[in-house]
Amino acid sequence: MLNRQGRPTDVGEPVEAIPETFTGNRALIIEEPLIFESGRPEVTGVDLPEAPKVAHRLGGLVRSGPIGLPGLSEPEAMRHYVRLSQKNFGIDSGMFPLGSCTMKHNPRLGEKMARLAGFADIHPLQPLSTVPGALDLMERLAQALIELTGMAAVTLTPKAGAHGELCGMMAIKAALQARGEGHRTVVLVPNSAHGTNPATAALLGFQVSPLAARDDGTVDPADVLDQLTPDVAAIMLTNPNTCGLFERDVVRIAELIHQAGGLVYADGANFNAIVGKVRPGDLGVDAMHINLHKTFSTPHGGGGPGAGPVVLSEALAPFAPVPFLRREGGRLILVEHDFGEGVSPFGRMAAFHGQMGMFVRALAYILSHGADGLRQASEDAVLSANYIKASLADVMSLPFPDRPAMHEVLFDDSWLEDTGVTTLDVAKVLIDEGFHPMTVYFPLVVHGAMLIEPTESESKASLDLFIATMRDIAMSVRRGDIARFAGAPHFAPRRRLDETRAARTPVLRWTKPVAE
Amino acid sequence: MPNTHYTKEHEWVRLEGDTALVGITDYAQTQLGDVVYVELPAIGTTLDKGEEAAVVESVKAASEVYAPVAGEVVAVNDRLVEAPGIVNEDSEGRGWFLKLKLNDPAALESLMTAEQYKLYIETIS
Amino acid sequence: MRYLPLTPEDRALMLARAGLGGVDDLFADVPAGKLLGDLPNLPPSKSEIEVERLMGRLAAKNVAAGAVPFFCGAGAYRHHVPASVDHLIQRSEFLTSYTPYQPEIAQGTLHYLFEFQTQVALITGMEVANASMYDGATAAAEAVLMAHRITRRKKAVLAGNLHPHYRDTIATLSRMAGDELVVAPPAPCGAERLAALIDDETSCVVVQTPDVFGHLHDLHTIAAAAHANGVLVVAVVTEAVSLGLVAPPGAMGADIVVAEGQSLGNGLNFGGPYVGLFATRQKFVRQMPGRLAGETVDADGRRGFVLTLSAREQHIRREKATSNICTNSGLCALAFTIHLTLLGETGLRRLAELNHAGAVELAERLAALPGVAVLNKTFFNEFTVKLPKPADAVVEALAARGVLGGVPFSRLDPGHPELADLLIVAVTETATAEDRGAFVAALTDVLAGGEGA
Question: What is the per-residue pLDDT across C121-150, written as a single tens digit (0 to 9) for each?
């Protein structure tokens, strides 16, 4: 049995330069055209019968001329989207320590449950008598959110975090108006807040009054007091804040605001650090949104859909928007219009009843974890961030070294000063090393911010590899060995993209090339 | 340039007769990075000192340009709309934003001179 | 706990490395007395099988649309979604990725968003579209705010036949933002005189086609009247499949087109998550809310895509942003674009024809029933019938007979008792001839005073 086919058995000599390929493809990374380049209008991947001939009832409003839509057969479509997916980094690809975004494992049980026909295939306007299980599920989620936050009520309808902020601030505005205090037009917003906070306040006609942090990165009650004019409607406080610190004076701040007749909005983006450990309702909060896609790990989906239920204090509960659930004689009903006694909803946030698909996933997450698992998840998230902090403190720079980190740890770029390496370079080198970069240049309150949120989903081995990689990067910087930073990433499907060109001459859609 | 004055918000203003050109400083364009868009006011707009006159956007930042002194907009640099990169290339020359007819040319004296502005940016950077 | 990889030994080692004595040290900044000891009202962790049993029981209490003859619409439509769509959107790299802020490792998302934007522009007949919004109603509210920014006016006029949830969503935001609103009354027979409501303080007029009763509208007349006054036309479409057959708003003078995209690729899901479509003219692009993917090149000159024009957005402009929106409806947009790619031009047209033919057939049969009148001269796949009885009672009686027979207008807007006998009926390709027959038979029985009627 000799090798008579001439098949080589050695691996060959090492090569200096990697050759170009004819196709531009690189093995598993395959270049993919736009569907407008590969598809054909006459091709379809869906077999449909010819429609029976009827007398149209379109009143002459028939579309004329071709739409210009390409079609792909099913095998072509599968390849197109699978190849595109291979150019994306997800949580399932590797560690994704994107601070403030909470990229933790997405349990697939939620996907399975959300696809049960009894949840996925029910219409929002079919008779309520045919959807008691859906209402029951919504009530169970609502009860769990109330239990975990210690608040009086919850409105489930907002469709994302920023939409929840809008809802909470509308409730505050409605409550102030009901009190005859519409003159309160100022909202205090710390400089470290997410951009959505000032944008939301401004959208509702509030005047944003920025609040600087003290040296340790948290808000000083004395500074709040200084800005506490009779015009103050509310404070929007993120806790833990975006520097990854618990606002240790939150109770005092809330007292000051309440004494002055204002209300406290809490941005719940970082609620995942304290679930099962601290209840916002015990801290003096009047309204807080909960990003179900962060804290309760419904998938981020490449940028949505999210869900942003808002928990409300006794003071704000009557103003919650429609629809809401109510028990009447043991029966659960969905109140869509008929307000009844004692409530005055400020209006409606969106069509229908909220992100039911996300409610199912979030409840599956909560039930799976249970009280013990939720507490453990928060503790592990915070422990992991502190482990990273302690393991990198000697080679990177911490703007706020003295307070314990919560679920995320913030570094600045003073360790890169005069090295020619920037925060962006570090992020791009991490891509080459197989990690998703941390959040960079946010929060705005420190220079060259690097915000690292490991979440509870990483094993110790995974954390250790990340730490070792960051230390190696730091050593390269110290040695002045910075070749790895120039032009990184080198191994991603694309190298750095020209964002200036994209913005100066925006090309936002495909157009048919003009024939030469 | 001797007849150019500067603001703490990094605008420059240069007197030419009873009108003045307004733009953003070289320091400002460096801080912003590649300018990708400039929004200019309508001709005929009257501006108070400190009022928002224009907006300049880079890829990762956006900034308002304020009127350094009060006046009426008599011309704008339309070329910036098509070619915002001029702001990066020549911010204190071809990259001017707008021309103001001044209510009170003497108001310029309250602004910084080139030397004072140079010292000012040393203190903030 | 199956989702938590750290072991007790790992935790002890990590605490030691962090120089902490115990878990409570991690929460040292929590004010005294505010750290919880326990969560007494939440049960302990459950295995997959336990959670499946519990949730399966809840799901089983609901009547799934696919189990019965089904004719509900009014802004959410049951269409057949190809099996490959759901498979593809569950690819980990799509499902578990984030907003594509690091474009070198997010070309998959950015590439499909660029295709999505192009498809949306094509079907709406507009020049540009964004990377999607939360849903159709919030997209409509954002369109009104955008029109206010462009025109520097603060008064919107809403057609009476705009979906009441859309109307209420816009009205809530307008009231809270201190803007003005003029709302026309519902016109179940379809004819509205909106031009009379426009003046030189109006920023936009919001018109839906097909409207909530199913009527189609030629927008040319209202567009001419609006544009003569410097007023923008915002067109709303709640059934995206209609755009395969009906003249698109962009061809009739609309300045902004918003739509609910749920019909393609996305299930009913009891109302969400859905996907808002948002399209406009090139000249308004910098006033657009939401995310935008744009084409560019990388350092090697290869084509690639990035999020662009982001200086309009909240994370940069903060209180001066065009909108407070921080996300889109990415995965629903992916489902939409995959479904539309599979359909292609041929499939979308055929799907739209099938919907229309089914609706025409059912409308004719219902119109023949004694006491029943179809109010529509024109419609796509949804029309309104006037019943001799209150529609909510009829719908309950139909449900008791195993038919989900449409949406009473009073469910959407109980503020018009004179319209309580109107039933909105939608017919898609999922309703078979047999289903339509069952509906006609059940309605006949209910109206004849059968049991439970």
Answer: 999 999 999 999 999 999 999 999 999 999
Tell me how many residue pairs between chain A and chain C have CB atoms under 8 A apart. Answer: 711
pLDDT band at C452; cut points 50, 70, 90: low
User: In this structure, what CATH number is given to the domain that contains residue C424?
Assistant: 3.90.1150.10
Mean pLDDT of C392-410: 98
C368-391: per-residue pLDDT in tens?
A: 999 999 999 999 999 999 999 999
C189 and C208 part of one domain:
yes
| Pairwise CA distance, residues C176 & A174, whole Å | 8
Q: Which residues of C touch B38 (CB under 8 A)?
A: none
Facing residue for C316 by CB, picked from B37, B39, B61: B61
Enumerate chain C positions whose Cβ falls within 8 A of a Cβ in B: 286, 309-312, 316-317, 320
Which of B59, B63, B64, B66 is most worth mutating to test chain C (most C CB atoms within 10 A of its CB)? B59
Answer with the one of C308, C338, C368 that is the final residue of a domain. Answer: C338
Q: Which residues of B touch C309 (CB under 8 A)?
A: 37
Domains, chain A, ranges and CATH?
109-365 (3.40.640.10)
| pTM of the model as a whole | 0.96
Structural domain boundaries of chain B? 4-103+113-118
β-pairing, C256-260 vs C232-237, is parallel
B84 in contact with A, Cβ within 8 Å: yes
Count CB-CB contacts under 10 A for residue A328: 9
Render pLDDT for C146-183 as a digit per residue (tens, 0 to 9). Answer: 999 999 999 999 999 999 999 999 999 999 999 999 99
Residues 185-204, chain A, touching B (beta carbon < 8 A): none
The answer to whether residue C45 sits within a structural domain is no
The per-residue pLDDT for A515 is: 72
Task: Give the whole-angstrom CA distance, residue A336 versus residue C318.
Answer: 33
> Do C318 and C356 belong together in one domain?
no
B38: nearest CA partner in chain A? A504
Q: Do C325 and C368 sit in the same domain of this protein?
A: no
- For residues C166 and C218, membership in a common domain is answered with yes
Residue C297 and residue C68: Cα distance in Å, rounded?
51
Tell me which of A36-50, A103-117, A390-404, B92-106 is least confident. B92-106
Return all residues near B108 (Cβ < 8 A) that are at least 6 apart: B5, B13, B15, B20, B68, B69, B102
CATH of domain B4-103+113-118: 2.40.50.100
Whether residue C90 lies inside any domain: the answer is yes
CA distance B116 to chain A (A): 26
Residue A340 in this model has a pLDDT that exceeds 80? no
C131 and C182 fall within a common domain = yes
Give percent of chain C with pLDDT exceeding 90.
93
Q: Examine residue C5 and state whether it is found in any structural domain, yes or no.
A: no
- Residue C371 lies in domain: 67-79+349-447
Residues of B in contact with C316 (CB under 8 A): 60-62
Transcribe C217-239 into DSSP letters: ---HHHHHHHHHTT-EEEEEES-
Element (H, E) at C137: helix C136-151
Name subunits touching B (3+ CB pairs < 8 A): A, C
Report the CATH number that the domain containing residue C292 is assigned in CATH: 3.40.640.10
Give the residue from A425, A431, A429, A430 showing the smallest Cα distance to A413: A425
> Residue C330: which of A62, A69, A301 has the nearest Cβ?
A301
User: Is the sign of the CA dihedral B79, B85, B88, B89 positive or negative?
Assistant: negative
Q: Is A338 helix (H, G, I), strand (E, B) or coil?
A: coil
Q: Same domain for C331 and C395?
A: no
**Whether the predicted pLDDT of C316 surpasses 90:** no
